[in-house]
Structures are given as structure tokens and as C-alpha cells.
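Module 6 notes. Inverse folding takes a fixed backbone as the condition and produces residue identities as the prediction. Think of it as a translation problem where the source language is geometry and the target language is the twenty amino acids. Below is one complete input and output pair. Work through it position by position during the lab.
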């Protein structure tokens, strides 16, 4: 990940803040001065109205009104209607208020009264009395009026036509003062009592304030931008951390790992996305599980089909091989009988016995193959019963007593204690009979056949031991394969088909039990296990009795 979402989000937010501040600085540079001037005009108007209101409140009598006395040399204190200490106190309060207005609003104030008009050199000259000046020059001497700075600068200005705003009582003008080489905003107006007022504020100070404000704003912009970037890193980490968690879960999902789920802690967009991811994970897990199950089933069916094909081919090949010899014998002896090769009765009986013996072997082979086929493919439903295996084995051995006498075998079997097992009686009898027949057919040495039934850990172990030759180690794993014969000549001699042990293998696998063979010092032991617990075993395709 070249650039993380956290950095991108932080940079984007920082760029937005920085751009906003840059735009603000540009707006300040182009419009702040005009805005300040407009604000200063409103301030001058506000001061004008405030002074006019004070004059009306204190009842100052102007040049056009008559006071309590109409003397020619009117004194300043005749502005007030009350005499004595009260009049002086009111005057001082009003003067202090105007001084405060001047200082608080950074403007110069001049109040004056026009008393007399004279014509000198064909020009009108007015006698003026200064009532208040924020510069502290208050005088009643008419000869000093024109020397007063605010008024003098105004009348000496060449251009007084730049009027910003005007009404019947006042006029707002932008005036350039040559003496100071500065521009000012002047308000010249008349009060309600007939006196005059002149207010002045420097435009240069406004522009300087705007420049200072802009520089300060630039510094603030840089500091705030740096601080904002750090803050945004922490804030964005809170959001990007959740997104990275979702990305981690999504990567695991792409690897088919659906164990991890997103802990939803809010109902915002990330919470909705987390819920969607969790739902998608559960749906995919369920769907893939079903798909795996279907694939496994399909694979099993395909493998079973291939296996059936292979088994069919193998079956046909083995059956053809196994039946070739008996069929040839039957055909040969049958042709001999037909052609009367031997006329004596004894030879014909011998021929008939051979034909019948070979037909019997073929019948046994076919029957065992059919049984094996049914067990391997599960076409026959198992009938699981709870029965005494010791009693069942005892019955089989009793029925085979004549075979033991014929083989001169010594049987050892302890049937004193019953052992109950679960299983299909018919299949288990078939499996044990194959072990017993195998032991009798390979009996040698002391000619002992020992049958044992032991019980341990919920399992019964049935073993059949016979003295005789041991099985070569290389053949031990092969003897369970259909038609495999260690000693083909001997197997043919006693009529073995090579299918018996395959039936044992298929039966035990069908029941889910173990089986095997062990070479002992003086013989061979075949064994298999059965379920000897008290609970019915879970076996697919069974009928419980």
C-alpha cells in the first residue's frame, strides 16, 4: 500500500482547510479594507447620532435658540437649562462621554458654533466658537478657530467632492489632507440644536489594521494547518482503523477463511458495511459448505462409478480365470463320457464325480462372489442384532465337527463366558466361517486350531489361530485382495476360491470394525473386532432389531 487511506484522508482534509484559509486571506486582501471603511462609516454615523442624542438629553441650547437670558456675550454654561453645580456636572459628564467616544472609536471630534457672518473682501467670513475638541483645544476665541487642525485640514483640502454618503443633516466624504499626506473620512453635519459637528478617522490606520490582520491571519493559517494535520491524523486513524479491519476480514474471506467477524459498534455507514461483510461471510461459508458437500458427493459418486467399472472388469477377468479350469475339466470329462472312452462302470463314476465336484466348486465361487458384491456395494440392508458371539461361534464349530475330525485337528475354544456384541449375525457367521475354513485348509505341525473371544474397552476380539506355515511378509497385505492366492497349487487342491478373506474384509469395513492377520512362532492368527458396548452402534444403512 503506497499511500494509506489514513494519510490520503488527512492530506485531503488538510488541503481543504488550507485552501479555505488561502481563499480567506485573498478575500481579506481584496475586500477587508473596503469592509473596514464601510464599518468606519457606520461608526462615524453612530458617534454622530450618539452626540446628537446627548445634546438633546442634556438640553443644550444652540445658536438658533433662546436661552434663559438673551445676553449678547453668551457664555458656554448658558447651553444648559439649569444653573449652578448641576449645570457644571452635566457639562463635564457630556464632555467625558464625547472623549470616551473619541478614544474608543479612534476618531477625532470637533463641535463648533457659527456666531457671526462678516463680509471681508467680498467673501463671507464666519466667527466660530469651539464647543469641544477631542484634541483638547477648547477655546471661545473666534480668531483661533481656523487654526484648529481638524477644520483647517478640511478647508485646505483641494478635493472635497468624493462623497461617500449624505443626507439633509450630514455628509460623509473621503478627503486627502495635503499637510499630513494622508486620506481621511470626514463626517460634517449639523446637530438638532443648530450647532455643527466634524468627525474624522484616518483611512491609513484602517489599511494598516487590515494589513496587520492579514499577516496575523496568515500566521494563524500556517499554525492551524499544522495542528489540523496532526489532529486529522488521529481522527482519520479512528475511521481508517475500522476500514483496515474490514479489509483484513475481506482478505481472509478471499482465502476462504470465514472465522473472523467484524464487531459492529455503531449504526453509521461503517457499521452497515460491517454488518454486510458479516452477512456475506456467513452466506459464503454456508454456500461453500454446501458446494463442498455437493462436490464431495459428486466426487464420491464418480469414484464409485470408476471403482464399479474397475471392479466389473476385474470381476469378469477373475471369474473368467477362475472358471476356465473347472469348465475345461467339466467339458473334457463330459466329452469322455459321451464318447465312451472308458466302458467300465468305475471310470464313468469317476468322471461323473469330477464333473459334480467342479460344478460344486463353481457354485460355491459364484455364491461367494454374489455375497461379496452385495457387501461391498451395500445393496443389502444390514440387520443389526445384539447377540452372544460365543454361542454363535460354538454352533458353527459344532456343525463343523466332522471337518475337524477329517483334518485330525485339535480344537481349543473356551465357551464358558458369554460375550454380547452388535452386528449382522449372517455376515459375522460368514466371516468367522471363512477364518475357520482357512485355518483347517492350512493346518500343519501340531494341527491345533485355537479360537479365542476376548473383551476389552467395549470391543470384542475374535481370533482364529492354526499351527502351520507362516504367511510370507510380502503377501500379508495382498491376501485380502479378491482371488489372491499365496499357494495356488494348494488352494486348488482343497477347492479354495481366493474370495473368503475378501468377504471378511468387506464385512468388517461395512460394520466399521477392524481386522487383520499376525504371524506367530508356530502358525498364523486371523482376527477381527466387534462392538461389545451397551449402545446400538451408528452404522449407515442398517435395520435395528
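Target side of the pair, the amino acids:
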Amino acid at each position: 500500500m503506497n499511500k494509506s487511506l489514513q494519510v490520503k484522508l488527512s492530506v485531503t482534509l488538510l488541503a481543504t482547510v488550507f485552501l479555505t484559509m488561502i481563499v480567506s486571506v485573498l478575500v481579506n486582501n481584496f475586500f477587508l479594507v473596503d469592509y473596514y471603511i464601510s464599518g468606519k462609516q457606520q461608526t462615524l454615523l453612530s458617534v454622530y447620532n450618539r452626540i446628537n442624542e446627548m445634546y438633546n438629553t442634556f438640553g443644550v441650547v444652540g445658536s438658533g435658540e433662546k436661552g434663559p437670558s438673551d445676553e449678547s456675550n453668551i457664555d458656554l454654561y448658558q447651553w444648559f437649562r439649569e444653573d449652578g453645580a448641576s449645570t457644571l456636572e452635566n457639562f463635564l459628564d457630556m464632555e467625558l462621554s464625547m472623549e470616551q467616544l473619541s478614544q474608543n472609536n479612534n476618531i477625532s471630534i470637533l463641535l463648533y458654533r457659527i456666531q457671526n457672518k462678516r463680509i471681508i473682501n467680498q467673501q463671507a467670513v464666519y466667527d466660530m466658537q469651539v464647543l469641544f475638541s477631542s484634541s483638547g483645544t477648547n477655546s471661545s476665541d473666534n480668531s483661533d478657530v481656523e487654526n484648529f487642525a481638524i477644520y483647517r485640514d478640511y478647508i485646505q483640502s483641494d478635493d472635497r467632492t468624493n462623497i461617500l454618503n449624505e443626507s439633509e443633516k450630514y455628509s460623509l466624504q473621503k478627503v486627502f489632507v495635503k499637510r499630513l499626506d494622508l486620506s481621511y473620512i470626514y463626517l460634517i453635519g449639523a446637530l438638532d440644536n443648530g450647532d455643527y459637528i466634524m468627525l474624522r478617522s484616518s483611512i491609513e490606520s484602517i489599511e494598516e489594521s487590515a494589513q496587520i490582520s492579514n499577516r496575523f491571519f496568515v500566521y494563524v493559517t500556517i499554525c492551524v494547518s499544522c495542528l489540523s494535520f496532526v489532529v486529522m491524523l488521529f481522527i482519520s486513524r479512528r475511521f481508517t482503523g475500522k476500514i483496515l479491519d474490514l479489509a483484513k476480514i475481506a482478505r481472509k474471506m478471499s482465502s476462504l477463511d470465514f472465522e473472523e467477524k467484524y464487531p459492529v459498534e455503531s449504526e453509521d455507514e461503517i457499521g452497515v458495511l460491517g454488518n454486510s461483510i458479516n452477512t456475506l461471510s456467513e452466506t459464503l461459508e454456508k454456500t461453500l459448505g454446501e458446494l463442498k458437500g455437493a462436490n464431495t458427493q459428486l466426487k464420491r459418486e464418480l469414484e464409485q462409478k470408476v471403482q464399479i467399472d474397475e471392479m466389473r472388469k476385474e470381476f469378469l477377468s477373475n471369474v473368467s480365470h477362475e472358471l476356465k479350469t473347472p469348465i475345461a475339466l467339466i467339458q473334457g470329462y463330459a466329452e469322455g463320457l459321451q464318447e465312451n472312452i472308458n466302458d467300465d462302470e468305475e471310470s464313468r463314476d469317476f468322471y461323473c464325480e469330477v464333473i459334480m465336484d467342479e460344478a460344486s466348486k463353481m457354485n460355491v465361487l459364484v455364491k461367494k462372489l454374489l455375497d461379496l458384491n452385495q457387501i461391498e456395494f451395500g445393496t443389502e440392508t444390514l440387520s443389526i442384532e445384539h447377540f452372544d458371539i460365543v454361542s454363535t461361534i460354538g454352533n458353527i464349530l459344532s456343525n463343523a465337527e466332522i471337518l475337524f475330525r477329517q483334518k485330525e485337528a485339535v480344537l481349543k475354544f473356551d465357551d464358558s463366558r458369554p460375550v454380547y456384541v452388535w452386528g449382522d449375525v449372517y455376515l459375522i457367521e460368514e466371516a468367522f466361517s471363512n477364518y475357520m475354513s482357512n485355518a483347517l485348509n492350512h493346518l500343519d505341525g501340531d494341527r491345533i486350531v485355537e479360537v479365542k473371544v476376548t473383551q476389552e474397552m467395549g470391543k470384542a476380539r475374535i481370533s482364529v489361530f492354526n499351527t502351520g506355515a507362516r504367511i510370507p511378509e510380502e503377501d500379508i497385505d495382498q491376501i485380502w485382495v479378491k482371488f489372491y492366492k499365496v499357494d495356488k497349487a494348494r488352494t486348488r487342491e482343497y477347492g479354495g476360491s481366493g474370495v473368503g478373506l475378501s468377504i471378511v474384509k468387506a464385512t468388517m469395513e461395512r460394520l466399521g470394525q477392524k481386522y487383520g492377520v499376525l504371524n506367530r512362532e508356530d502358525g498364523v492368527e486371523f482376527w477381527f473386532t466387534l462392538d461389545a458396548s451397551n449402545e446400538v452402534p451408528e452404522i449407515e444403512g442398517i435395520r435395528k432389531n
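Reference fact for the lab report: The chain is about 55% helix and 20% strand.
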